[in-house]
Amino acid sequence: MYYERHGRVDAGAPPVLLLHGLGSSATDWTEQLAGLGPRCRLLLVDLPGHYRSALPPGRLTVEGMAAEVGRLLDALGEPPLHVVGLSLGACVGLALALGAPARARSLTLVGGFARFRPGSAAGALALLARVACLATAPMTAVAALAARAMFPKPEQAHLYRAAVRSLARTPRRTYVAALAALAAFDARDRLARLRCPTLVVAGDRDTMVPLAAKEELARGIPGARLVVVADSGHATPADQPEAFNRVVLELVAAR
Known about the structure:
Blueprint: E1 3-7, E2 15-19, H1 30-35, E3 41-45, H2 62-76, E4 81-86, H3 88-99, E5 104-110, H4 121-136, H5 139-150, H6 157-168, H7 172-184, E6 198-203, H8 211-220, E7 225-229, H9 236-239, H10 241-253
Parallel strand pairs: 2-3, 2-4, 4-5, 5-6, 6-7
Antiparallel strand pairs: 1-3
Helix pairs in contact: 2-3, 5-6
C-alpha cells in the first residue's frame, strides 16, 4: 500500500491518518497538508486499488480495505491515530475503528454513512446515471461526472479540474469493485460498540450522500457530534478547508 508522511516529525506531534474518497488518492489532502501539517504528524495512503496501491485479489470489501490499512499501520509501528476519512475513506475509517478499536484515538467521518441509501428520487437517478456512465464511458467521463457533482460552482473550476485528474487515474475495475463494496457495507448494528470521540461532518450542499445518512451515523455512535458545514458539498476538506481544519484540530487538541 502506497503511503506518504507529511507535517511535523517530532514524537509529540499528534498522529493523523487521512483516508481519501472513492476513486481518488492521497492527493485529496492538499489543504490539510497546509492546515494540519504544522501541528500534526500526517500519514496519507492510497487505498487498495487506487492510484499507486495494488488491488488485492478476491472480492473487495470495506472491511477488507480497513484490514489492509491496519496491516500497513502494524508494519510502520504506528501508535493509535486520529483517523480522518472522506466518503469511502470515512467508511474504511469506521470499519478500522470497529475492527481494531485500539487503533483510533478519534474518528472524523466526512460524507460517510453506516448504510447507503439515496435520499430522494433525484439522488437515485443521479446514482443510476453514474453507474451507467461507468459501464459505458471512458474513465475521464466518469471522473468528470463525479467531479461536477462535488464542485458545481464556476469559482470551483480549479477544484473540479484537480478532481478530474485524480479520479481519471483510477482503473475501472477498482471503481466498480469499490462501488460494490460501498453498496454492501452496513455497520448500523455495530455503531454502539464505538467508544472513541467521533465527529461526523456533513456539507449542507452534499448531493451524493444525504444528510439523513449522516444523522443516522451520528445518532448511532455514542457521544458522536454532527457538524454541518455551510456552503459545502461532498468534499468539505477541499471546498471549505478552513472550517474543516478548524474542527479537526479542535478534536485532536482535546485528545
